[in-house]
Amino acid sequence: MAVELNELRDQIDAVDKQMVELLARRLALVEKVGEVKSQHGLPIYAPDREAAMLASRRAEAEKQGVPPQLIEDILRRTMRESYASEKDSGFKCLNPELRSVVIIGGNGQLGGLFGRMFKLSGYQVKVLGSKDWDSADELLKDAGLVVVTVPIHKTLGVIEKLNNLPEDCILCDLTSIKSKPLKAMMAVHKGPVVGLHPMFGPDVPSLAKQVIVHCDGRDKEQYQWLLKQFSIWGASLCNIDAEEHDHGMTLIQALRHFTSFAYGYHLSKVKPNLAQLLKLSSPIYRLELAMVGRLFGQDPNLYGDIILSSDENIEMIQRFQRSFGEAVSLIESRDKAGFVESFEQVSQWFGDYSQQFMTESQNLLKQANDSIHRPHSS
């Protein structure tokens, strides 16, 4: 049996080696594709091409007796690597006549990411850090685009200082709240203004499929090239009114960050053995625990600023506290019928999204389970 098993494993190893060689060839071709896209100003992410290619490969896999989802998983992972390598080829510069891009807060992680992307696109980038305000007038006098990316609590104060920009300069910010910064930029600058919110952190390998929200301010025809530049980087654009954006962020960011904080805070009080919890965890709990733990590996000031950025956020958290209390009352009273009734009401509210989220989460959980290494226990 051992001889037979070893022979089969040797054959598998040989196939795996061929797969590695094929992946290397594919990545080399992708690099050439990136060069062509750069020359012609094409986005690194083409959703129609990706969807058509995946559908074709799934059909081919099925004919070969290979599970279609398997080839899709392999290709999606490969494409993620491809998008990251494509950006190294640089991007076409859509506005070569633009004067310098000044990033206020460009020494920070997010500012640094955008600075690199602008440089990869051939723009002249200057950084105005917290210690550079003595030379701010010199840095800003020939700016064609000024990007404000500083902590939320400093954003309005920084914007107020920008009252002497060239009139045709585009002024924008990357803050996670939009209404107040947009109004402040409109008040201080008479030229083009746009509010931006990148819905991702600075650790993304590429901007492919990442969302950038834009809230129109003034002279929007003057910054359309900027939005198209983001598209070339691979980003998906979402245009929304600033106040609507902030209402949405109350739930998407403030409330979710707070509930993660509260759960982690509670765990720190209960003090469970985390290593033991992980051993007992199903993939979904491990993923949930990882998302909570991830929060506490980052800057607390950032999350404090997000949660405390508006009265609306605090009011929503207070409403959540009341809803939580109502749910606790159901449990305290051992009211299973009431629990089931409330559960079904929520299920009806989610509607078809429940099944969609079930499918999406199953795929995520399979990937999460694949990445877990569980040693044999004695």
From TrEMBL:
<keyword id="KW-0028">Amino-acid biosynthesis</keyword>
<dbReference type="InterPro" id="IPR008927">
    <property type="entry name" value="6-PGluconate_DH-like_C_sf"/>
</dbReference>
<dbReference type="GO" id="GO:0070403">
    <property type="term" value="F:NAD+ binding"/>
</dbReference>
<dbReference type="InterPro" id="IPR046826">
    <property type="entry name" value="PDH_N"/>
</dbReference>
<dbReference type="GO" id="GO:0004106">
    <property type="term" value="F:chorismate mutase activity"/>
</dbReference>
<dbReference type="InterPro" id="IPR036979">
    <property type="entry name" value="CM_dom_sf"/>
</dbReference>
<dbReference type="InterPro" id="IPR046825">
    <property type="entry name" value="PDH_C"/>
</dbReference>
<dbReference type="GO" id="GO:0004665">
    <property type="term" value="F:prephenate dehydrogenase (NADP+) activity"/>
</dbReference>
<comment type="pathway">
    <text>Amino-acid biosynthesis; L-tyrosine biosynthesis; (4-hydroxyphenyl)pyruvate from prephenate (NAD(+) route): step 1/1.</text>
</comment>
<dbReference type="GO" id="GO:0046417">
    <property type="term" value="P:chorismate metabolic process"/>
</dbReference>
<dbReference type="InterPro" id="IPR008244">
    <property type="entry name" value="Chor_mut/prephenate_DH_T"/>
</dbReference>
<dbReference type="GO" id="GO:0006571">
    <property type="term" value="P:tyrosine biosynthetic process"/>
</dbReference>
<dbReference type="GO" id="GO:0005737">
    <property type="term" value="C:cytoplasm"/>
</dbReference>
<comment type="similarity">
    <text>In the C-terminal section; belongs to the prephenate/arogenate dehydrogenase family.</text>
</comment>
<comment type="pathway">
    <text>Metabolic intermediate biosynthesis; prephenate biosynthesis; prephenate from chorismate: step 1/1.</text>
</comment>
<protein>
    <recommendedName>
        <fullName>T-protein</fullName>
    </recommendedName>
</protein>
<dbReference type="Pfam" id="PF02153">
    <property type="entry name" value="PDH_N"/>
</dbReference>
<dbReference type="Pfam" id="PF20463">
    <property type="entry name" value="PDH_C"/>
</dbReference>
<dbReference type="InterPro" id="IPR036263">
    <property type="entry name" value="Chorismate_II_sf"/>
</dbReference>
<keyword id="KW-0963">Cytoplasm</keyword>
<keyword id="KW-0520">NAD</keyword>
<dbReference type="InterPro" id="IPR002701">
    <property type="entry name" value="CM_II_prokaryot"/>
</dbReference>
<keyword id="KW-0827">Tyrosine biosynthesis</keyword>
<dbReference type="InterPro" id="IPR003099">
    <property type="entry name" value="Prephen_DH"/>
</dbReference>
<dbReference type="InterPro" id="IPR011277">
    <property type="entry name" value="CM_T"/>
</dbReference>
<feature type="domain" description="Chorismate mutase">
    <location>
        <begin position="1"/>
        <end position="90"/>
    </location>
</feature>
<keyword id="KW-0413">Isomerase</keyword>
<feature type="domain" description="Prephenate/arogenate dehydrogenase">
    <location>
        <begin position="99"/>
        <end position="361"/>
    </location>
</feature>
<dbReference type="Pfam" id="PF01817">
    <property type="entry name" value="CM_2"/>
</dbReference>
<dbReference type="GO" id="GO:0008977">
    <property type="term" value="F:prephenate dehydrogenase (NAD+) activity"/>
</dbReference>
<keyword id="KW-0511">Multifunctional enzyme</keyword>
<dbReference type="InterPro" id="IPR036291">
    <property type="entry name" value="NAD(P)-bd_dom_sf"/>
</dbReference>
<keyword id="KW-0560">Oxidoreductase</keyword>
<dbReference type="InterPro" id="IPR050812">
    <property type="entry name" value="Preph/Arog_dehydrog"/>
</dbReference>
<keyword id="KW-0057">Aromatic amino acid biosynthesis</keyword>
